[in-house]
UniProtKB/TrEMBL annotation:
Domain of life of the native organism: Bacteria
Pfam families referenced in this protein's UniProt entry, alphabetically: ABC_tran (PF00005)
Protein name: ABC-2 type transport system ATP-binding protein
TM annotation in the entry: none
Residue ranges constituting the ABC transporter domain according to the UniProt record: 5-230
Keywords: ATP-binding, Nucleotide-binding, Transport
One function term, GO molecular function aspect: ATP hydrolysis activity
PROSITE patterns given in the database record: ABC_TRANSPORTER_2
Species, as recorded: Prauserella shujinwangii
Amino acid sequence: MTTLLRTRELGKRYRRRWALRDCTLDIPAGRIVGLVGPNGAGKSTLLNIAAGQLAPSAGSIEVLGGHPASGPAQLAKVGFVAQDTPAYAALTVADHLRLGARLNPRWDAAAARNRIERVGLDPAQRTGTLSGGQRAQLALTLGVAKRPELLILDEPVAAVDPLARREFLQGLMEAAAEYELSVLLSSHLVTDVERVCDYLVVLVDSHVRVAGDVDELLSSHHRLTGPRRDPGTLPAGQHVVSVSHTERQTTLLLRAESPIHDPAWTVSRVGLEDLVLAYLSPPTAAGRPALEVLR
C-alpha cells in the first residue's frame, strides 16, 4: 500500500527557534487523517512542508512516494487549503474557477460547477462579499476540482459558525468518498476530527505523541478507577498515559493491547476527546512514552 506521508526526524527551524523537530510519521494512504495539537505545536509547519510551501531544515519527508514540490507531477498530486482560505476579493466565484482551470492540469470543470451549484454559491458574486463559510466552501471546491490524490486542509473552518462548519465537513466527507481522496486535516476541535476522520495524529511541542487508526486507538485505551496505588506496579504491557489520585482512589488512562483482568479496577471506555486531552497534557510522573503508534 502507498504511504500517504512518511517523515523521518523532520524539522523546520526559524533562526534559533524550531517550529517542528524530530517528527517521525508513517501514515497509510486512503485515510482521512486528523492532525490535532495546541497552538505552536507545529501543525501548520508540517502541513506546509507536506504541501511544498516550506522546505525542511532537517530530516526527510515523502508524500505519496515523492518529495514535496519536486516537479509538476508531484504538485498535481496535492491540493492545499490554507488556514485563512485565501481568495482574491475582487474576483468572482466564476473567475476563481477559470483561474483554477488554467493553473491545474487535472482540473475537473464539471465537478467544480456541480459543487458550486450544490453549495449555493453565485458564480457572479465577488469573493470579497462572501461569508466565511462560503469562502471555505469555495476553497474546498478549488481543492477538490484540482483532482489531487491528497487534499491538505489547515484549520479550514476555524473562524466559521457551527452550521457552516458542519456543512463544510459534510461536503469534505462526500468529496473524499466520491473522488477517493486521502485527506490530511488540521483542527483544534476534536469534535471535527471525530466526525470525519478515521486516523489520528496528536502533535505536541513539535513532537508526535500518538498516531494511529481511530478505532484501534479507542479500543486499546482504557480508563481504570480503583484503590490508590503506584502506577509503577502495573503489569508489563500497560502503558500509562495519565494518572490522577485522591486520598483513597487512583484513576488511570492507559494503553493496553490485552484485556484488563485485575478485579480491583473498574474499567470504562475512553472517548476520543478524553484520549486526545490526555496526550495533550504534560507527561505524568508515571512516564508516558514519547510516542505511541498503532498500525
